[in-house]
Structure formats: structure tokens, C-alpha cells
Amino acid sequence: xxxxxxxxxxxxxxxxxxxxxxxxxxxxxxxxxxxxxxxxxxxxxxxxxxxxxxxxxxxxxxxxxxxxxxxxxxxxxxxxxxxxxxxxxxxxxxxxxxxxxxxxxxxxxxxxxxxxxxxxxxxxxxxxxxxxxxxxxxxxxxxxxxxxxxxxxxxxxxxxxxxxxxxxxxxxxxxxxxxxxxxxxxxxxxxxxxxxxxxxxxxxxxxxxxxxxxxxxxxxxxxxxxxxxxxxxxxxxxxxxxxxxxxxxxxxxxxxxxxxxxxxxxxxxxxxxxxxxxxxxxx
Length: 283
Prior knowledge:
There is one protein chain. This protein is an alpha/beta fold. α1 packs across α2 and α4 runs parallel beside α5 (about 100-110). Strands 1, 2, 3, 4, 5, 9 and 10 form a 7-stranded mixed β-sheet that branches. Strands 6-7-8 form a 3-stranded antiparallel β-sheet, with no helix packed on it. Strands 11-14 form a two-stranded antiparallel sheet. It folds into 2 domains: about 1-30; about 45-280, no CATH class. The chain is built from 11 helices and 14 strands. The radius of gyration is 21 Å and the shape is globular.
């Protein structure tokens, strides 16, 4: 009995030493070092990001959150471009100021198919998009899990209550499955590693007026060029906010870029998780 008790005490102490305090901190920093020593890798080229970035915010000159007819136009053009699927890392849990915009966006989701909308896990379940939008889309939670030092190293693919993540729902578009529950992310590089299009460039065709461009010599209808080159054909597109002031950015093992602090937008963390599923990448 005493031997058993002694062994149990030793095991508990070993666990506490290993998974708390300085040892755990050192383990996390070693993970970060492995990425930096390895360097950057090319992410999967069938995943792209459409960013609501500073450029888009300036060009559209609209209050955020944007009216949902804007996202309907975005889906219309992405469908024209032949994308494989679209995920919105944006919460649509309340109605648009103009209810007709919800109907327009809902119809665009229905016509595009293979659309995933973000939810948010809470203690008693999840916060979902309004039914009008949810009825025609898949959903997946967009929560990310920081370690004690605030760095995002792991990704929750499924919750204990059976909800699945944003990346996992997107992967299902390709019929790719994973048994992962929670796992370390295999980062490909710092912020900006995935091919990224400012959202205004996908909107900018002959039917969509972008004031400070349409009135200048630079009016070339950028989307038409993207369409002609087939740049988005067969891609999985993740749409999300990358503007620093909107606070959807997080520290990762690749915090430094060209010597400057460069946190990663949440949409790129989801893109990384999706890439890990599609390529079976992992630590």
C-alpha cells in the first residue's frame, strides 16, 4: 500500500513539474524555436485569403460592419471565378440594418453553395448566424485558444459538445476528414504567408463603383483581370478582417517579420488549420 501511494505521489509530482511552471514555458518556447529554425514554407496554394484590410476599408469608405449586399456581391464574383468554397470568418449573429440586405446575402449563399459561416462557442452552446443565412450554409466555430503566454500554438478542431471548427467545416467541402480533437498547428510562416487579395479587388468590376478608384486613371476593374487569369479557380477562399484596430490578430511562433512584431490575423490561423487538415501536416 505504501509503495503504491509513493508511486502515485511521484507520478503526480512528475506531471506537475512537466506541465506547469518553467518546464511548460520552456517546452512552448522550444516549439517556437523549431519553427524559426525551420524557416518559412510554402502554404497550400489551393487556399487563399480575401482580406478586409486597410486598403479595402479606405476604398469602400463605409462603416464596418459592411451592409450584407456587399458580401453578396463578393460571393457573386467568387462564384464567377470558379472557387471551390468560401468561408466567412465574420459573425452574422444579428440582422443587417437593412433587412433586405440579409435576403440578398442569403440568396447569394444559396446560389454559391459550399459556404461556411463562423459561429462562436460560449459556455452554454454557440452563437450562430441569423437563421436566414444559416439555412443555406455550413457553420463552424471560429474561437482560437491561446496558451498562457497569449501565443496561438494549438487549434481546437472539435468541441466537447460536438461542435466543429471553422477549418473543419471548410475541409468537408473537399471531403477531407480528420480525427483530430485539439492539436498543435503547423505554421507555414508569419502573417501574409497565404496568397491574399484585398476584398475591394474582388468587388471591383464594371458594375461596382469604388469612388476613389473609379474617378482616377487607375480604373482597370481589377476583378476582371483576376477572372481572366483564372487565379481563383478551384480555390478555397477564407474571408476575414485583417485590420489591426479591429483586434482579430494574435501572436504566433512567427511573431517577428523582418525584425518587427507582426501578429497574425485570425483568418490566417484558420487558413493554417485548414492547410494542416488538407496536407496532413502537423508537429
